[in-house]
Amino acid sequence: MDPSVVTALSVILCLLLISVWRKGYGKGKLPPGPTPFPIIGNILQLDTKNINKSFCLLAKAYGPVFTLYLGSKRAIVLHGYEAIKEALIGHGDAFAGRGSFPISDTINKGFGLLFSNGERWKQIRRFSLMTLRNFGMGKRSIEERVQEEAKCLVEELKKTNGLPCDPTTILESAPCNVICSVVFQKRIEYQDEKFQRLMENLNENIRILSSPWIQVYNLFPSLVHYLPGIHHKLIENFRYMNDFVLERVKEHQETLNANDPRDFIDCFLMKVEEEKQNPQSEFTIENLVYTTLDLFGAGTETTSTTLRYGLLLLLKHPHITKKIHEEIDRVIGPNQSPCMKDRNNMPYTNAVIHEIQRYIDLVPASLPHAVTQDIQFRQYLIPKGTTIIPLLTSVLYDNEEFPNPDQFDPHHFLDESGNFKKSNYFLPFSIGKRACVGEGLAQMELFLFFTTILQNFTLKPVTDLKDIDVTPVDNGFNHVPPCYEICFLPSKNM
């Protein structure tokens, strides 16, 4: 090779190493971590097919707080309950930023609820929480809406006539319709073509987001964005969903009655009108569309995937399902619709639902946080803007809090007397200021949907129990369950 070329490459390599060193040590002592390579960072030390497992292995070597470079971007990983609690609760304001998630930055552009920051995030989150909590406004409560949808879900499952079916679309439609009821005032028929396409896009997006290719995109977005790949399909799907929501926003604008707001969109439009003279207002149509999409994505996919994964686990463990049936018969009976008051008298069912959420570990690394200021954390100084990864899987699979965490066991949430046992380590929705705004709604849906399904149907597997595989097929952003078929046999008491 030409000596001048060698010299030039050596200079570039030195500059890159100096750049990495300055990022890592220029503002104080960072947590320990593996030595990064120029440009690619620590990517060679990570398994992109199961990046969260790699994080757990690195924690054994470097401790509960360690530094990684994802490409050239620095990140601090928090492993274990104490580290996550200390950061997200003990230093809540400093750790309340949203870390960079390049594929979402491309799609959301910093708008909406999930991926916004600063004053925009504070205003949108405060408004969304208030509106969701007080949504009834003297009309039907959220619980009534979920109960109504649970009945519709049962009717849809009856149409399968006890034959083998893939439950994905049906189970996705139910929580999505709850969100439709809150956001659009009314539910949509499961067979509606636009609704079906919306379901397909949501389901496909989760699969794409959990793929290794998106991990690569997030590491090198400026390069990968222009290459062929499934990220283009993801962007196309979100464009369709954006148009779907925008169409309904325009319908609401034409029929808005400020004296009688019907749903979340009406309430947001009233806020837009109220602040139209404020040039700094965050209540814009763009923020409305992306906030609605965030509610759809977070409120539909997390619940539907938990339902789908949960039914697969119940197929795998029929002795557990039998105990739930017995508790439903004893507490609710065959004719009364399940309600949230029943949960206090159903410790076993409550424990099973919590164990489903713990075991499936749906969003292992949560969404990335970022520190909003230079922060002294333990013996380290973390610079402002650093991405923070709270590894929820390290809490949900803590082997001291949950003995034999790799086993699906409802007794993780039951005491010796069979009473439901709460755990501070139950963090599927994360904690702190960035915790999921829809946690209460999701817990309500899971209890009412699971109990209503099991009140009306017996679950029958299509294959032998030993052949039922509950291993997730994707281990990226989400844990995605394998596809499967199931028979919903109507209960004899129906």
From TrEMBL:
<keyword id="KW-0560">Oxidoreductase</keyword>
<feature type="signal peptide">
    <location>
        <begin position="1"/>
        <end position="26"/>
    </location>
</feature>
<dbReference type="InterPro" id="IPR017972">
    <property type="entry name" value="Cyt_P450_CS"/>
</dbReference>
<keyword id="KW-0496">Mitochondrion</keyword>
<keyword id="KW-0732">Signal</keyword>
<comment type="pathway">
    <text>Lipid metabolism; fatty acid metabolism.</text>
</comment>
<keyword id="KW-0492">Microsome</keyword>
<dbReference type="GO" id="GO:0006805">
    <property type="term" value="P:xenobiotic metabolic process"/>
</dbReference>
<keyword id="KW-0276">Fatty acid metabolism</keyword>
<dbReference type="GO" id="GO:0006631">
    <property type="term" value="P:fatty acid metabolic process"/>
</dbReference>
<protein>
    <recommendedName>
        <fullName>Cytochrome P450 2E1</fullName>
        <ecNumber>1.14.13.n7</ecNumber>
        <ecNumber>1.14.14.1</ecNumber>
    </recommendedName>
</protein>
<dbReference type="InterPro" id="IPR050182">
    <property type="entry name" value="Cytochrome_P450_fam2"/>
</dbReference>
<keyword id="KW-0256">Endoplasmic reticulum</keyword>
<dbReference type="GO" id="GO:0051879">
    <property type="term" value="F:Hsp90 protein binding"/>
</dbReference>
<keyword id="KW-0503">Monooxygenase</keyword>
<keyword id="KW-0408">Iron</keyword>
<dbReference type="GO" id="GO:0030544">
    <property type="term" value="F:Hsp70 protein binding"/>
</dbReference>
<dbReference type="InterPro" id="IPR036396">
    <property type="entry name" value="Cyt_P450_sf"/>
</dbReference>
<keyword id="KW-0479">Metal-binding</keyword>
<keyword id="KW-0349">Heme</keyword>
<dbReference type="GO" id="GO:0020037">
    <property type="term" value="F:heme binding"/>
</dbReference>
<dbReference type="GO" id="GO:0005506">
    <property type="term" value="F:iron ion binding"/>
</dbReference>
<dbReference type="InterPro" id="IPR008070">
    <property type="entry name" value="Cyt_P450_E_grp-I_CYP2E-like"/>
</dbReference>
<dbReference type="GO" id="GO:0005789">
    <property type="term" value="C:endoplasmic reticulum membrane"/>
</dbReference>
<keyword id="KW-0521">NADP</keyword>
<keyword id="KW-0472">Membrane</keyword>
<comment type="subunit">
    <text>Interacts with chaperones HSP70 and HSP90; this interaction is required for initial targeting to mitochondria.</text>
</comment>
<keyword id="KW-0999">Mitochondrion inner membrane</keyword>
<dbReference type="InterPro" id="IPR002401">
    <property type="entry name" value="Cyt_P450_E_grp-I"/>
</dbReference>
<comment type="function">
    <text>A cytochrome P450 monooxygenase involved in the metabolism of fatty acids. Mechanistically, uses molecular oxygen inserting one oxygen atom into a substrate, and reducing the second into a water molecule, with two electrons provided by NADPH via cytochrome P450 reductase (NADPH--hemoprotein reductase). Catalyzes the hydroxylation of carbon-hydrogen bonds. Hydroxylates fatty acids specifically at the omega-1 position displaying the highest catalytic activity for saturated fatty acids. May be involved in the oxidative metabolism of xenobiotics.</text>
</comment>
<feature type="binding site" description="axial binding residue">
    <location>
        <position position="436"/>
    </location>
    <ligand>
        <name>heme</name>
    </ligand>
</feature>
<keyword id="KW-0443">Lipid metabolism</keyword>
<dbReference type="GO" id="GO:0016712">
    <property type="term" value="F:oxidoreductase activity, acting on paired donors, with incorporation or reduction of molecular oxygen, reduced flavin or flavoprotein as one donor, and incorporation of one atom of oxygen"/>
</dbReference>
<comment type="similarity">
    <text>Belongs to the cytochrome P450 family.</text>
</comment>
<dbReference type="Pfam" id="PF00067">
    <property type="entry name" value="p450"/>
</dbReference>
<dbReference type="GO" id="GO:0005743">
    <property type="term" value="C:mitochondrial inner membrane"/>
</dbReference>
<dbReference type="InterPro" id="IPR001128">
    <property type="entry name" value="Cyt_P450"/>
</dbReference>
